[in-house]
């Protein structure tokens, strides 16, 4: 069978799949690596481990394809957005890769927004001015280590790093990743002069921007190790968010895609670069004539995982001996289903990891409001789920304000296995939500874009027919009305406690450097 391999480089793992023409999976693998937190607000990855993971994932999936008797006709790449890594002239990393979750550039972000340039830059680049963006990360380097910033031959991100390991090609990046840097003018299709000045870098330090369907050539050593023909087309691909829309079949007008994993996002596809007047939405490329507009939230399944670690540590239910974290989270969600919508007057601001959309304000922190003695663990968990879903509903409200209609949503990610998550999501959005049966939606999106690039999928909207889905969960009208009445309180509360949170941050002792694994171990 002719298959396409998709390689999806994520924050904690690189996933590889081989997909048949009908979208079914023929092989899959996952290569994990730890997220390092070397100081307060920092989040980094070992760039060599990241690059090697992409090579290993390709070799492993290609090997499985040979065992299946399948023929690999193309390879497509996906990568997460908003990363920065210093590189030498040959594409080798000169330091750690700074991820989207790194918040060290808060001061630089606030300064750019305060002087009035933030919304102008977002309108041109499609990327909100926020500590996540490479623009502000490089501005941090300009303030703190300008000599290194200027002397470093190349500045790139995940895709540039992976391409250096896989592709026999000049220094390049795809349009989709470039559109998420905050440095690229998505209308003029060039590196933005004002953004470059703020970041302290020159255009020649950045990669050549190629269309997302560009064919590259595999490095000969990688092709040999993978047992592939060196002429197998390597499609440069796109960013993970836009590809997730494609991978769940949410490219037709009016259909949104929600990813609900550790973090979350709501996105929909438009036919041209679009800047919203309020500056609440991002706009990233899928192809030259298909663009994804939406908003990402930092907190989703991570909030329930935190609740399990915090509220259920040491708690043993009958028959729960040896229960792992996923099983515990599922049990907590079932327990929370017994609580009525609205959590009996409890409101959660779920900003454990700060927050992004729709406000893009650094420094937001979590809180419970309205807490009373009669509230139990189930109320705290349900309220956390409601808080995350309300944040995604605020993104949907931003769509409405821009005249971008949504009539249905396809959802994917680990959280949508829960009936509670899907029901609350449908009610807060007041839309039918269908769970897409695609466990690796982003990697599948990379496969589908690669098929499009080699001419086997002329119409991207045809991908919707390849994604199996179940029956939609329709919103409960009473719950939808209640959540709509509660939603203004979320924004009012989040803004009202900002000054208190800043003072608490100032007075708090600084945490020790750690890794994601150490955080989990300490919680246990």
UniProtKB/TrEMBL annotation:
Keywords: Kinase, Transferase. The keyword Transmembrane does not apply. It comes from the Bacteria. Residues 257-453 form the Carbohydrate kinase FGGY C-terminal domain. InterPro entries: ATPase_NBD (IPR043129), Carb_kinase_FGGY (IPR000577), Carb_kinase_FGGY_CS (IPR018483), FGGY_C (IPR018485), FGGY_Carb_Kinase (IPR050406), FGGY_N (IPR018484). Residues 4-247 form the Carbohydrate kinase FGGY N-terminal domain. Belongs to the FGGY kinase family. PANTHER family: GLUCONOKINASE, SUGAR KINASE. This is Gluconokinase.
């Amino acid at each position: 069978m002719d298959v396409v391999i998709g390689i999806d480089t994520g924050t904690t793992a690189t996933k590889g799949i081989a997909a048949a023409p009908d979208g079914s999976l023929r092989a899959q693998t996952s290569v994990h690596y730890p997220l390092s937190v070397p100081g307060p607000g920092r989040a980094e990855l070992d760039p060599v481990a990241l690059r090697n993971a992409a090579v290993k994932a390709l070799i492993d999936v290609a090997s499985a394809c040979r065992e299946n008797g399948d023929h690999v006709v193309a390879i497509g790449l996906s990568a997460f957005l908003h990363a920065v890594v210093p590189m030498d002239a040959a594409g080798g990393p000169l330091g750690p890769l700074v991820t989207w979750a790194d918040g060290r550039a808060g001061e630089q972000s606030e300064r750019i927004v305060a002087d009035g340039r933030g919304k102008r830059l977002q309108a041109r680049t499609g990327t909100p001015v926020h500590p996540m963006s490479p623009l502000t990360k490089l501005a941090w380097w300009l303030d703190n280590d300008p000599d290194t910033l200027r002397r470093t031959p190349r500045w790139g991100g995940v895709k540039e790093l992976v391409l250096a390991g896989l592709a026999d090609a000049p220094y390049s990046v795809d349009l989709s990743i470039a559109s998420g840097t905050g440095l690229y003018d998505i209308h003029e299709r060039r590196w933005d002069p004002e953004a470059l000045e703020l970041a302290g870098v020159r255009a020649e330090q950045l990669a050549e921007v190629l269309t997302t369907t560009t064919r590259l050539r595999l490095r000969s050593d990688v092709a040999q190790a993978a047992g592939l023909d060196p002429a197998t087309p390597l499609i440069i691909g796109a960013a993970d968010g836009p590809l997730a829309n494609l991978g769940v079949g949410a490219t037709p007008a009016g259909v949104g895609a929600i990813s609900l994993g550790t973090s979350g996002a709501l996105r929909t596809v438009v036919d041209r670069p679009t800047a919203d007047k309020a500056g609440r939405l991002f706009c990233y490329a899928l192809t030259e004539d298909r663009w994804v507009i939406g908003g990402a939230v930092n907190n989703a399944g991570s909030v329930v995982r935190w609740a399990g670690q915090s509220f259920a540590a040491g708690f043993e239910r009958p028959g729960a001996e040896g229960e792992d974290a996923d099983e515990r989270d599922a049990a907590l969600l079932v327990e929370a289903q017994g609580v009525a919508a609205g959590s009996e007057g409890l409101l959660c601001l779920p900003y454990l990891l700060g927050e992004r959309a729709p406000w893009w304000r650094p420094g937001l922190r979590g809180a419970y409001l309205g807490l009373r003695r009669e509230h139990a663990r189930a109320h705290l968990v349900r309220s956390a789920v409601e808080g995350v879903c309300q944040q995604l509903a605020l993104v949907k409200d931003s769509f409405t304000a821009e005249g971008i209609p949504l009539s249905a949503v396809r959802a994917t990610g680990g959280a949508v296995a829960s009936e509670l998550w899907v029901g609350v999501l449908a009610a807060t959005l007041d839309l039918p939500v269908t769970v897409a049966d695609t466990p690796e939606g982003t990697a599948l999106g990379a496969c589908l874009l690669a098929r499009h690039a080699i001419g086997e999928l002329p119409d991207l909207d045809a991908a919707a027919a390849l994604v199996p889905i179940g029956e939609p969960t329709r919103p409960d009208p009473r719950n939808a009305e209640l959540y709509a009445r509660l939603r203004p309180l979320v924004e009012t509360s989040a803004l009202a406690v900002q000054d208190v949170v800043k003072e608490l941050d100032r007075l708090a002792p600084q945490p020790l450097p750690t890794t994601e694994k150490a955080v989990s171990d300490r919680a246990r």
